[in-house]
UniProtKB/TrEMBL annotation:
InterPro entries: Cro/C1-type_HTH (IPR001387), Lambda_DNA-bd_dom_sf (IPR010982), TransReg_Diox_bact_type (IPR050807). GO terms for cellular component: cytosol. Pfam families: HTH_3 (PF01381). SMART domains: HTH_XRE. This is Transcriptional regulator with XRE-family HTH domain. GO terms for molecular function: DNA binding; DNA-binding transcription factor activity. It comes from the Bacteria.
Length: 109
């Protein structure tokens, strides 16, 4: 069920609210609210959050599932960690190089 309107309708019925109640709380007509549940209206994120607040649920339950999953790709994580390791390693090397060059440039007094 990817239809946001259908998900909203089911939650509304579960909470035993009428379309009129929802429309009143959203400050829209009942006909306009009906179009939301029928999927005939494109919803803004703001409107989804307002509906979720009325229904006392997380707005994210109405959102479609991610196409490619919700977890980070393992390969992406490994590549990023490897880049960070190389970056920090280069910083350590440059610090060590500076420290050695400082010692070689100081002359005994």
């Amino acid at each position: 069920m990817d239809n946001i309107g259908e998900k909203i309708r089911l939650k509304r019925l579960e909470k035993r609210l009428s379309q009129e109640n929802m429309a009143f709380d959203l400050d829209i007509s009942q006909a306009a609210y009906s179009k939301i549940e029928l999927g005939q209206t494109d919803l803004t994120v703001r409107r989804i959050f307002a509906i979720a607040e009325i229904l006392e649920v997380s707005p994210y339950i109405f959102m479609p599932k991610p196409k490619y999953g919700s977890a980070l790709a393992q390969e992406f994580v490994y590549k990023t960690l490897n880049k960070l390791r190389k970056f920090w390693s280069s910083i350590r090397k440059s610090k060590n190089g500076l420290s050695q060059s400082e010692h070689s440039h100081t002359s005994p007094q």
